[in-house]
Design a protein that fits this description.
- This protein has a single domain (about 5-225), classed as TIM Barrel (Alpha-Beta Barrel), CATH 3.20.20.10.
- The chain is built from 9 helices and 8 strands.
- It has helices spanning about 5-20, 40-50, 60-65, 90-95, 105-115, 145-155, 180-195, 210-215, 225-230, and strands spanning about 30-35, 55, 75-80, 100, 125-130, 160-165, 200-205, 220-225.
- The chain has an 8-stranded parallel β-sheet.
- It binds pyridoxal-5'-phosphate (PLP).
Length: about 230
């Protein structure tokens, strides 16, 4: 078995254990393999081992890798999980199945417009990235601005708001992230009540803290180094 396949099966076991421990069904949790700074070959390997969701944080990097994945790209779900500049909105909407890092009204407006302009495109799934954990974390919409941004996204006919995402500040002890994960879950529940729609996706937890995120309600976790090893492309 390759290292990636072995890592994948170990991570799946950890997901199962964490879910069962939290009284949850492991099938509710989607594993996203974060392949940023990893070669296309690693994606192929993880896909062959059964992984069906990947995350990249830059449009250009994914476009380059996609061209090396003939026969494989298009057969899994690819998420944009990094900050998106609005001048790349059109390319991102074509290259990704879901934009998981939406944090700004004008970007939402731009994405809606580029999808509207493409007659072959269907509604684009999005998550709003929330700024959780104070000054140390730099991306995401401020807590106070979340309800209004979510309301306005709902008015865009070509975007489908599906949930929330966060990247809490790095903490040596994964337990320190627990309160941030709990906060994102509570925000999601409040927002569902406020908007009157279900928000099925809660994207939180990375290599060193995904078990904590699962115990706080994550429906998808984003795992890079634990699956692929150290990032190799600078
Ligand atoms: C890099 C990255 C990850 C994965 O981090 P690891 O610690 O390698 O698991 C998850 N989410 C986002 C947004 C990232 O940029």
């Amino acid at each position: 078995m390759s290292t990636i396949a072995a890592n994948l099966s170990e991570i799946r076991e950890r997901i199962n254990r964490a879910a069962l421990h939290a009284g949850r069904n492991p099938d509710e949790i989607t594993l996203i393999g974060v392949s940023k700074n990893q070669p296309a070959e690693s994606i192929r390997e993880a896909w062959s081992a059964g992984l069906s969701h990947f995350g990249e944080n830059r449009v250009q990097e994914w476009e380059a890798k996609r061209s090396q994945l003939a026969g494989v790209a298009g057969r899994f779900t690819i998420h944009l999980i990094g900050h998106l500049q609005s001048n790349k909105a059109a390319r991102a909407s074509r290259a990704f199945d879901s934009i998981d890092s939406l944090d700004d009204f004008s970007l939402a407006q731009k994405l809606n417009r580029v999808v509207a302009d493409d007659p072959t495109a269907s509604k684009l799934p999005v998550l709003v990235e929330v700024h959780i954990g104070g000054e140390e974390s730099k991306t995401g919409v401020a807590l106070e601005a979340l309800p209004q941004l979510a309301e306005r996204i709902l008015e865009f006919p070509f975007l489908r708001l599906q949930g929330l995402m966060c990247i809490p500040p790095f903490a040596e002890n994964p337990e320190d992230a627990r309160s941030h994960f709990a906060q994102l879950r509570e925000l999601k529940e409040k927002l569902e009540a406020h908007l009157g729609i279900p928000l099925p996706r809660l994207s939180m937890g990375m290599s060193h803290d995904f078990e904590i995120a699962i115990s706080e309600g994550a429906t998808e976790i984003r795992v890079g180094t634990a699956l692929f090893g150290s990032r190799v492309i600078p």
